[in-house]
Amino acid sequence: LLLTCYRSSDYVSGYSVMHFVFITGGVASSLGKGLASASLASLLQLRNFKVRLRKLDPYLNVDPGTMSPYQHGEVYVTDDGAETDLDLGHYERFTNQSAKKSDSISSGKIYSNVLRKERKGDYLGATIQVIPHVTNEIKLFINSDLNNEDIVIYEIGGTVGDIESLPFLEAIRQIRNDKSISSALIHMTYVPFLSSAGELKTKPTQHSVKELLNAGIQPDIIMCRCEKQINQDALEKISLFCNVKKEDVIPALNSSSIYEVPSSYYEAGLDTSLLNHLGYHINQYPLDLDPWKKVISKINNPTSKVTIGVVGKYMNLKDSYKSLNEALIHGGIANSAYVDIHWINSEELDTKKILKELQKVDGILIPGGFGYRGIEGKINAIKYARENNIPFFGICLGMQLAVIEIARNVLKLEKANSTEFVETDDPVIGLMTEWHSKDKLEKRSINSDKGGTMRLGAYEAILKEGSKIKKIYNKGKISERHRHRYEVNTNYLDKFIKNGFEYSGMSPDNILPEVLESKDHPWFIGVQFHPELKSRPQEPHPLFVSFIKNCIKSND
Length: 556
Known about the structure:
alpha/beta, seven-stranded parallel beta sheet
């Protein structure tokens, strides 16, 4: 394997200087490695470094696409159609840089690649082993699809000590053992506070670092997650017993907003410590935190408050709607508003409960999802929003359910439904193969024998002149990310238009409806795509900005 990465002091013809930074976690999961990686990348960007963020996950699933949101949070979708870990959402939101398929891999995909090569005979009959075959495949990924970045940050999922993580740690050990490669390893641990003793305990961190040492890896920087201020004695103890300089032991304390984390880590010296380790003179790379200061100022100084009812079925784990949650906050930032998200379980929304819950909110949002569970509660919420002129935003499944609700209660098609749920005489939502002619399907290169295909990744849409959606975007053609299999049945379009509902966004070939809006409602919009995936704190998505703005008006 040729690893085109050299120390900052080396200048090799044809190659730019490149450094690998690995971030591991210890003691406990959910410490915030993804947020730390994204924040560090943002700080390095503000110093004018070209940075790349990538994720290596140890689970054996090939990707998160079929994993339950309760197990793994939301599935984040990239422009090129990868179903990835939600940490890639953090990466994009903090760096304003779109991720790619090649920025995420799992043990499942690594092993699949190795076994496929074995079946093809690529290993020439050799005995296939974790070392060298699996570790070589990991190193191949680490060094793949690079484009002269200055610093590439690799977040390693899971916790050091887990058996699934061992091949990744071994691959990292081999890379770091190559003295021609410039690298750094940041280890994030948990420093608990025992209230009974009134003390912070550093022993878990010491044991976690020993786990790394057992794998042949010495960390260069230790980040200490803690809910209390870490005193100097504790920092010196970690430095002494973990063989890391005191200035390289970085406190990582809780923040009131995740968008305060870059500033917090800057003040703690994280980026300074890393760049010193990589051989840079920090004074030559000044940093201006103004972009993050402006975001935090707007978050901390709202001029209004708005309550948004998000009606879904994955209420027990808010990470199931992570990007949506952040996009609503971004919409609030753009409007100098505090957004209070009222999570409503759609499985409990019967006719009696719905009025009580929805009377508390200024706007109603139905997110994407799959499956029949909780559907009727969401439809009840949509009806309430439509009949009471409450701003309504339907995303993906939310738009499809709006189509069903309108078909039942306005078009009087009582059996209207989606073929995803039931067989029906009025399939207003269905697979393309169920309602499009064969010649149209052939033009779209869709294989009708497969029963339909999932649209994943970025697709374009044409917005209708004079529509609300075009005014919101202020342009006629958009590109947004999709993750769905079922589509709006265009055989019913004329009935919707006659009743005041406009399909104001269509695919470029005019076959697939992308946007539904009501002509008579102040703000009733459904979109087939997932706009939350492209919203950023410094560049809020226009749909969320408009939605929050109209919810504020509704509140007034």
